[in-house]
Amino acid sequence: MTYQIVVGVDGSPHSIAALRWSLDQAASRRGAVTAVLAWQVPFVSIPGAFDRAELEQGYREFLITTVSEVVPAPDVPLNTVLAEGDPAQSLVTAAAEAGAAALVLGIRGRSPIAGLMMGSVSQACAASAPCPVVLVKRPDTG
């Protein structure tokens, strides 16, 4: 069985740090990484304001471009998953379906006080993930 890591990717510098950390960990364990981007159709009271298929394609392209820019030639198997729905639930579901050894998320860590509090997605994942949740700060955030 392959050591599997699921990582949330949203294009932020924090999620990029989490992706890099995940790839390093997977390489050290001969594992694999699944990068997950959760998306939702924006809630607008105007029917037909957004084309769902167009939004989905845009998010898919964004995910692939983001991951490809971070790691053009990964040393480990790297899959991308586009998940429609609540970010926390999508990440927890992806971790469960993959049989993940870890769910990795990037966090801001803006200040010593703010660093003590987790965001809502981090909290929800920590409370319900089927595996350990790893929170990764960018190296330049102290």
| Widest beta sheet: strand line-up | 3-2-1-4-5
The count of helical stretches stands at 4
Main beta sheet: 5 strands, parallel
Global geometry: globular
Residue fraction in strands: 15-25%
Please write the CATH class name: Alpha Beta
CATH-defined architecture: 3-Layer(aba) Sandwich
User: What is the name of the CATH topology?
Assistant: Rossmann fold
Instruction: Measure the end-to-end span.
Output: 36 Å
Considering the chains and any ligands shown, give keywords for the structure.
alpha/beta, Rossmann fold, single chain, 5 strands, globular, 142 residues, 5-stranded parallel beta sheet
Task: Describe the structure concisely for a colleague.
This protein has 4 helices and 5 strands.
Describe this structure in words.
By secondary structure, the protein is α/β, with parallel strands linked by helices. It has a single domain (6-141), classed as HUPs (Rossmann fold). Helix content is 39%, strand content 22%. It has four helices and five strands, in the order E-H-E-H-E-H-E-H-E. It has helices at 13-28, 52-70, 87-98, 120-128, and strands spanning 4-8, 32-39, 78-84, 102-107, 133-137. A five-stranded parallel β-sheet has the order 3-2-1-4-5, sandwiched between helices. Helix 1 (13-28) links the parallel strand 1 and strand 2 (32-39). The longest helix is centred in the middle third of the chain and has 19 residues, at 52-70. The protein is globular and about 50 Å long.
Please outline the helices and strands.
Layout: E1 4-8, H1 13-28, E2 32-39, H2 52-70, E3 78-84, H3 87-98, E4 102-107, H4 120-128, E5 133-137
Parallel strand pairs: 1-2, 1-4, 2-3, 4-5
Helix pairs in contact: 3-4
